[in-house]
Amino acid sequence: MKRMRGWFAVAFMCAGLAGAGMAEELAIQSFNGTGQLVFNTLNSATNYRIEWASSPAGPWTNFISEALARLDSIPAAGSGSVTCSVPVFYRVVASVTNGVLTLDSAGDLTFGAVAVDATATRSLTLRNRGSVALTVTGISYPAGFSGDWAGVIPPGGERDVTITFTPTEIADYGGMLTVHSDSAVGSGMLAVSGRGVNGYMVINVSVGPAAVSYPVSYLADVPGGSWSDTDKTTKIVLRRIPAATDAFTMGSPSDELGRQSNETQHAVTLSKGFYVCVFEITQKQWERVTGTWPSYFNNAAYREARPVEQVSYNAIRGSSAGAGWPANSSVDASSFLGLLRAKTGLAFDLPTESQWEYACRAGTVTALNSGKNLTSTDSDANMAEVGRYWYNGGSGYAAGGSTSVGSAKVGSYLPNAWGLYDMHGNVAEWCLDWYGTYPCAVSDPKGVSSGSYRLDRGGGWINLAYGCRSAHRGYDTPDYVHISIGFRVALPSGQQ
Fold this sequence. Notes:
Helix content is 10%, strand content 31%. It has 3 domains: 95 residues, no CATH class; 97 residues, Immunoglobulin-like (Sandwich), CATH 2.60.40.10; 292 residues, paralog of FGE (formylglycine-generating enzyme). The chain has 496 residues and is mainly beta. The strands form 7 sheets. Strands 1, 2, 3, 7, 8 and 9 form a 6-stranded antiparallel sheet that branches. Strands 11-18-17-13-15 form a 5-stranded mixed sheet, with no helix packed on it. It has a 5-stranded antiparallel sheet with strand order 20-19-21-24-30.
């Protein structure tokens, strides 16, 4: 069998030889004992004609228009023998009148685990195996997948198309991708699948304050199972926190040891997920964004991975535009968040108070996010597991001391169920809201409309155990600077 581009040619002797075609080729039986030529058709986009020849080498002749006349009018001389050539070879010629679309992929197109709101891409090759141009009119995708292309693929040509997967919730995604074309063989279909997970966002600030931009990337999981010092100093890592569509209980129960009167329990719904820092912003990260080292704990051998402190709410957001929350979410261009926004193009901010407590608790209802309560309001072994406070190193707060006294290196204690560190102790953390009385059940709260004090949560190395509980509320004026107050940044989901 001989295969030619756009034409398929097969020749057989009339003595009855037969052959089987390859996939998408003709399968022909010559005579087959019946005096008939039998062949199997290809597809509806193909025309056929029968040709004959007196030898396999040809020349081949259109059987219908010429062969009958030659067989009916054989010249012969009188009273002599006649020898004539009789055609004994036949072939079927198939002319493909459309392109033939194939999708080149090794099995299903699988994206695997991708962080919610992140984007992953794969390449798919569209190939035209026909002899004429193929027009792709569009591509249909199941939910979560995208990346359209339309155009012409020449005969024998191909086109690489980028397929994008962007999960918007924690779920399994999948379905059929369909490429539509003018090919008579129909549309090309391929199964695609992926999984949305609560992943991580990474901001690379290593270039420092002179950088024009900071690259942002995403991870589906902790690389190698643990974070490095780089992730605490020259990168800022945020974890995506799921929406609290089923309300969580904010505040503390009346019998919680160390409870304060301003911690009234109430139901809070958060309709959207958000990102929040895995670690408190460190001194090196602050320097990489602003170019300054404002902290009290200034020993150069230890300071880089310690949380930044002695930074006010105003220094983080700004005292002009940055004072507008909750009326708006603007920040001053010269503030930490103003610089970070400008170099990432993303609307980073402080977490609201409700976001902070929801992220801290990670599903727990106890005083500590380890699932444990306090046994003492002052020195407590359960508190010592989850963060630096007065009784496990905080009291020795020499400015030039190591991380064994005062503030600790971030990530030195147990994380919560969502992988967030130092939500209890180390440094208290500024939140967006003005301090005020808790409301009743509420959805997506922004705090009271105005006030004199901004909130800080989580307590710090200077606090006793009760001041580091999940529900404890601290508050100070926006310009207040203290050696035990820092922050972590957040990003509302959907603002990437």
